[in-house]
Design a protein that fits this description.
By secondary structure, the protein is an all-alpha fold. The protein contains four helices and no strands. It has one domain: Helix Hairpins (Orthogonal Bundle), CATH 1.10.287.3610. Helix 3 packs antiparallel against helix 4. It holds the Pfam family DAGK_prokar.
């Protein structure tokens, strides 16, 4: 049930709280999110320190955030599917596999972006 005063700054504050709760839950329960966040924490300073153009720097950082965002969505999809039923169902598997494919694509995009930007700088 939605609270009656769910508008204005109170809505923003509540939404921020829910978002922080979601990040904490992802950190606590999702090993892949923890691994990707740690990797992003290592790679972010590299993106900030390497000698690249502003657009290239934005692309390097964007790739990191895209991976984290897609992983959060994948985890949410998995949680909903698992909540609906413990029963093995083809559509449940399909939903999880497609969400996993989205994570794979985001990782591929991030890796390709980093390679295309950084390899020419060092070769």
């Amino acid at each position: 049930m939605k609270p009656a005063n769910n508008h204005g700054i109170k809505r923003v504050i509540r939404a921020t709280g829910f978002s922080m709760q979601g990040l904490k839950l992802a950190w606590k329960h999702e090993a892949a999110f923890r691994q990707e966040l740690i990797l992003a924490a290592i790679m972010l300073p590299v993106a900030l320190l390497v000698d690249v153009t502003t657009v290239e720097r934005i692309l390097l950082i964007l790739g990191l955030f895209v991976v984290l965002i897609v992983e959060l969505l994948n985890s949410a999809i998995e949680a909903v599917v698992d909540r609906i039923s413990d029963e093995i169902h083809p559509l449940s598997g399909q939903a999880k596999d497609i969400a996993s494919a989205a994570v794979f694509m985001s990782l591929f995009f991030c890796g390709l972006t980093w390679l295309l930007i950084l390899v020419p700088k060092f070769i």
